[in-house]
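Build the 3D complex.
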Amino acid sequence: MINNDNIIALATPSGAGAIAVIRVSGKDAISLTGPLFKSVRGKDLKVQKSHTIHLGHIVEDSKVLDEVLLSVFKGPNSYTGEDVIEISCHGSPYIQQQIIQLFLRNGCRAAQAGEFTLRAFLNGKMDLSQAEAVADLIASDNEAAHQIAMQQMRGGFSNEIEKLREQLLNFASLIELELDFAEEDVEFADRSQFKILLAKIQEVLKRLIDSFAVGNVIKNGIPIAIVGEPNVGKSTLLNALLNEERAIVSDIAGTTRDTIEDEITIGGVGFRFIDTAGIRDTVDVVESIGIKKTFEKIAQAQVVVLLVDGWEMASDPDKLKTSIIELEKIKNRYPQKPLLVIANKVDRLQPEEIEGLKLHLPDLYLLSAKSGLGVEELKSRLLEFVNTGALRNSETIVTNTRHYNALLKALEEIERVQFGMDEDTPSDLLAIDIREALYHLGEITGHVTNDELLGNIFANFCIGK
Ligand code: GDP
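Done.
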């Protein structure tokens, strides 16, 4: 799979901008650029030092295509580990294409998605989980997701796995060595030390596996189901939450109109608010489908918010009763799920009406989406619901499903080894299970790869990365 032909791609987004960066990597990156670049100071590109920048023109025959800044990185001290040229040109799509086409005619081919990072991996500049973190970093749209990707890219996650893998490998070799001396009945691998290592590995694997629950929601946004009848103020509340935060709003229409999602960043953490239909008793077929959907959404959510109209509840005992029934239904069905009951429109209530409501619903959270009363505190409450402790302590968090699956398999094998040790299983069988565990740990860092796996991972990158 190792390939060092010359590849080129636009590294900045396509479209117009002040500046665009075009990246070239490969064994001839510098020599093929030489004739296409005229330095204003008459420098010869071939003799320039690594990590230097040069002002000049990209020329075709005698025609000047653009005035550019050209950066030279010599392998192995470059992103890909090969010779790399980065051209910062003027950001018109026309100029970008002219330059890229010129290079394509002169010894380059168009890079595939993720090919620069694939080369970085193949040339040992980073391991596989770090390379995957590059894609996550580019995709991260909030502080928490960014922080996790950054930590993984710096190797936090792989270092931990790699240390364990090395220790395990050590034991595997010793146990396999014993097999060569089977007739002499010797023990090179200290069994009590090995048991300690196994326990430690299980502890670390379990912690990483558990962290996936946090990591996955942080990467994709923490799902919060908002249950509420029409007109209780769901849209107004979402807008109020949106207002002061830098947010990305996307209306992802679900299969039916009763599942709309809004993404909002609160305190650096991404939340996905899933708007649902209410769960009132009904004989209407269409409505009961909606209710089924609501329950499905509640099941998937990390937190449930039951939004009720406080003003209606205070003035109509029937409304109060239905809200209490709704609340009980959710509690009965999902007793473990964090649930927040919010009475909206409290700006329309008198203090004694509020007291009256609290008698029936002691944990009621009071809010006015319209006036903004209670909105700030609600944000803090939502953040409290989320287990971001791991984040704050900058512990390793697993966000990648591929890693998660490999960790599960590794743990399964380690548990098998542990069982084998307890049962005095012969060393040759033990060795097989250890090798399996090593295999799955190696899958994460890229010690064990195949072309298909690499193809899948890097196909998800953008071109130019
Ligand atoms: P949704 O159908 O649940 O999304 O409800 P909307 O957000 O569209 O709100 C329904 C109506 O209630 C609108 O006329 C809002 O202006 C009003 N409303 C929403 N929140 C409040 C509030 O806190 N106080 C008052 N007085 N009216 C509100």
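The chain has a mean pLDDT of 85.
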